[in-house]
Amino acid sequence: MRGVIAGVCHPRRAGRVRGRGSRAAAPPAGRPVGLLAVGVLSLATGMLGPLAPVAGASFPHHGSGHDSGVAARGADDRANKSATVWLCRPGMPHDPCAASLTTTVVDSSGAMSVEHAKDETASKFDCFYVYPTVSTESTPNSDLRVQTAEIDTAIAQASRFSTVCRVWAPMYRQVTLARLFALPLLNASSAPSVTAYDSLRAGFEDYLRYDNANRPIIFIGHSQGALILIRLLQQLVDNNPKLRQRLVLAIILGGNVVVPTGSLTGGSFSHIPVCTSPGQAGCVIAYSSFPSQPPASAFFGRPGQGVSVMAGQTAKIGMQVVCVNPAAIGGRIATLEPFFPSEGELPTPWAEFPDLYSARCKTADGTTWLQVTKVSGPSDPRPVVTEQDGPGWGYHEYDVNLALGNLLADTAAAEATWSKGTHR
Question: φ, ψ for residue 230 (rounded to 5)?
């Protein structure tokens, strides 16, 4: 046996924010932290047989950000009179959000089949994606070089959205892992947080000015990206009726969107409601995933603590964190559709594990979370995710990929509703 999928074993770690009440521990020596650890790597030999990396199956990498692809991006940006450096932009050379989506589907018996997906290059919808914490630079804020960590994360989280929209993702000067390890209590008004937000806002305003052409938008953010996206929507979209009309869906994961208890608006947003029915448009899908009830010290799911502090949301009394089940908007238990990058350990770039997990939203003792439960039997040879960072983090690093197929279906359904104009 060669062990479980290495993305589940976390050879590299990122895609997180630090908002703890105590100092965050540094990663073990020799363990890099730059890549979002959601890939599917070495499946057990007894399940699939020897799986040597297949030539051409892995995703393109772009080195340190100084390669010819990045130079081409800069030239394109100048031609567009935009100062933004793009991680993903439709038509851009070496766009990680246009990577191959060919998928090996592994069922509960270990049997495999291959499925193909196609980018929707003619879509009339845009997705605006804000990536999570991935920068391993030593400064408080990252620079704008497009590096391997950002590329891999965009592939893992955003590239499959290219089947339902045209994906845009600006580089931004995010708060680095080094600063979050050193000062885990950063709040929304701290200098590094302000720098990160201002940088992302500038990219979004450039996108609106030069690229959007009044197209409808799906917003997607995870972890630090979700926190900044909450602020961006608060300041530029929520109180702007014209721009709010173009909001098809906001997918805000691992960032603690909050509402007054029992309400659908208020809290994070005054006018953008929580999604309550399948196909609803103009609303928010938000959750943080756990295998069971989070502890009282959890960084997600509890208002006024953990990541809420970094988003400037400090109110606790009378507030609750939003949970919308992406597999069944409206609340019932349903099956997740997880997709994970294979990182060269399968003959396709992606792996899908159908009928492996169910999900439902739960609330207890002031905490709200998406409970993810393995539903297949003990003979199922497929790997499963674990709480790599402990119970306070739950399945945070897998929030997107555990439900990626469901989120794509939710996006397509919201687009259909938006096109009919029935939500406006």
Answer: -55, -50
Q: What is the pTM of this model?
A: 0.84
Sign of CA dihedral 78, 84, 87, 89: negative
DSSP assigned state of 210: H
What are the angstrom distances between the C-alpha of 23 and each of 212, 230, 367? Answer: 41, 25, 22
User: How far is the CA of 187 from the CAs of 22, 192, 253, 257, 308, in angstroms?
Assistant: 14, 9, 19, 16, 9
Distance (Å) of CA 200 to CA 74, 174, 226, 291, 391: 17, 8, 12, 32, 31
Domain ranges of the chain: 6-54+79-420
φ/ψ of 22, rounded to 5, equals -130, 165
**Residue 312: HSE in the Cβ half-sphere, 13 Å Cα cutoff:** 15
R_g of the chain, CA atoms, integer Å: 20
pLDDT, one tens digit per residue, over 322-346 is 999 999 999 799 999 999 999 888 9
CA distance 219 to 127: 6
**pLDDT per residue as tens digits for the range 107-120:** 999 999 999 988 78
Question: With 0-12 CB in 10 A as exposed, 13-18 as middle and 19+ as buried, what is 118?
Answer: exposed
d(Cα 313, Cα 386) in Å, to the nearest integer?
A: 28
Neighbours of 273 (CB within 10 A): 15
Q: Is 416 helix (H, G, I), strand (E, B) or coil?
A: helix
**C-alpha span between 357 and 375 (Å, rounded):** 5
| Rounded-to-integer distance, Cα 413 and Cα 196, Å | 32
Q: Which residues, 6 or more positions from 344, have their beta carbon under 8 angstroms from its beta carbon? A: 53, 54, 57, 58
Q: Is residue 127 within 8 Å of 161, Cβ to Cβ?
A: yes
Between vectors from CA 389 to CA 307 and to CA 364, what angle results, nearest 5°? 60
Tens of pLDDT, residues 149-161: 999 999 999 999 9
pLDDT tens sequence across 51-90 = 222 222 333 333 333 333 343 444 444 445 668 999 999 9
Q: Number of C-alpha atoms within 13 angstroms, CB side, residue 14?
A: 29
